[in-house]
Amino acid sequence: MTGRSEAVTVAPPARVLVLEREYDAPRSLVFKVWTDASHLARWWGPKGFAVLSWKADARPGGRFRFGMRSPEGTEHWAHGVYREVVPPARLVFTTAWENPDGSPKHETVVTITFSESGSEPGQKTKLHFHQAIFDSETARDLHRGGWDSTFDNLAGYLAAL
């Protein structure tokens, strides 16, 4: 026994968002559309939102920034840093919405794993999405609605490719 202890941070379950989806597309393609800005600009955001800009440098330490406009005309900007990029299996990045002056709001960490699913290898992808730690349950719930709609957009985009 060393006598040392390690601090472990555990996210309160009430402030963690976990979602799963299955897509009718190969894992390599699903991973690519999550990491290539030209693809992200075509499906990103909840239904009815318009992408204003999407820039991504999908490598560990690389940054991304995007902007969207809501149907009511409100602009929303966010940015983050890629922590892990493991094609085609795993993507980890920070993300924070921006205040009007560009300063970051509360930062969360998103972890996405991509695995093959279905009876025929390479035909379907299971996406496991984890985002934490939100500053409130309300923020988590608002993000759940946004991500659900965004994931629907992704399914439509993949079907059209």
Question: Can you put this structure into words, describing what you see?
Answer:
The chain is an alpha+beta fold and 161 residues long. The protein has 3 helices and 7 strands. The chain has helices spanning 27-35, 37-43, 137-160, and strands at 17-23, 50-56, 63-69, 75-86, 90-98, 104-117, 124-132. Helix 1 packs across helix 2. The longest helix is centred in the last third of the chain and has 24 residues, at 137-160.
Number of helices: 3
Q: What is the number of strand segments?
A: 7
Structural class: alpha+beta
Q: How does the overall form come out from the CA principal axes?
A: globular
**Helical residues, percent:** 10-25%
Major beta sheet, specifics?
7 strands, antiparallel
The parts where pLDDT drops under 50 for at least 5 residues are: 1-5
Hey, roughly how much beta strand do the residues contain? 35-45%
Distance between the termini: 56 Å
Q: What is the gyration radius calculated from CA atoms?
A: 17 Å
Strand order of the largest sheet: 1-7-6-5-4-3-2
Mean pLDDT across residues: 92
Order of helices and strands: EHHEEEEEEH
